[in-house]
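Workshop exercise sheet. Pairs work together: one partner reads the sequence aloud, the other fills in the structure field after running the prediction. Swap roles for the next sheet.
Pair: D.N. / O.F.
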Amino acid sequence: GGMAAKNKKVCVKSKVWLEDREGRIIFGLGRMRILKAIDRCGSLNAAAKDLKMSYRAVWGKIKVTEDALGKPLLVKSQGGSAGGGSTLTPYAYTMMDRYLELSRIIDTQADDLFESGFLDPK
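Structure field:
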């Protein structure tokens, strides 16, 4: 919300995500959290543990996103017994930035509309 909250009892909330034609989620807050965790933890396995998700669930979501966007989000680095790590591709960072930007634009526009008296009695 903007500065002009004016102590209203009602505010606008929006959640933005991207879907494919089949209605599968391609990108949203969940994917953001996964990518950030991989970035922070350095591997898919560690990220899954950190998020309290199964490795399969995390990998599955990333795979769906990569297939839909046609670009890789992760680069695997070969490791020893630990199985190597994963780092984000430049495209993954771009996607995260664009998603945040999109969310911000939608939030700002919703706030502007709302504060212009959208719900005021006519």
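Discussion prompt: The radius of gyration is 19 Å. What would you look at next?
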